[in-house]
Amino acid sequence: MGVGKSLKCLDGRIKDKEGIYGFPGGDTGLFLLVLNQYEKIINKTLLPSEIKNLFESYTKSMDQNKFYMCTDLKAIDWLERNINFEGLDIANPRDNIKESILKSLDNYYMHGDVLIKMLLKYSDKMKIRKMLVVEFL
Fold this sequence. Notes:
The chain is mostly helical.
C-alpha cells in the first residue's frame, strides 16, 4: 500500500485520477474482518476495551493519518429520522444526540457502506459476530 494512502470503499463513489487503494468497507471493512479472524484464531470473544486497544495500536502503526469509513446520504437521512434530529453532522455530532446515535449502530439502515450493512444484516451467514461489528463501530 502506498504511503499516506487509506483504503477506500469500492462502491464507485470515490473518483481519484491516481486511482484508489481499496477494500470493501474501506479501512473499516478490513479491520472488522481481521478482528473477526483474530477472535477465531484465539478462540475468544474480544471485550470492547480489547477492540479499542487493538484499534488504537493499529491506527498508530498505519502509514496514513486517516482511517477511512464511508456512509451515504440515505443512511444519514435514516439516522436523522430515527433520532428525530435534522442537520446532523455525522463527523462531529452534538453531545446531546451522541447516545441516540450509539443506540442505532446495530441497525444496518444506519450504514451507507454495503459491506457494513451486510455484516450487520447477515452476520450469521457471513460468520461474524454482530456485536463485534457494533462494538467496533
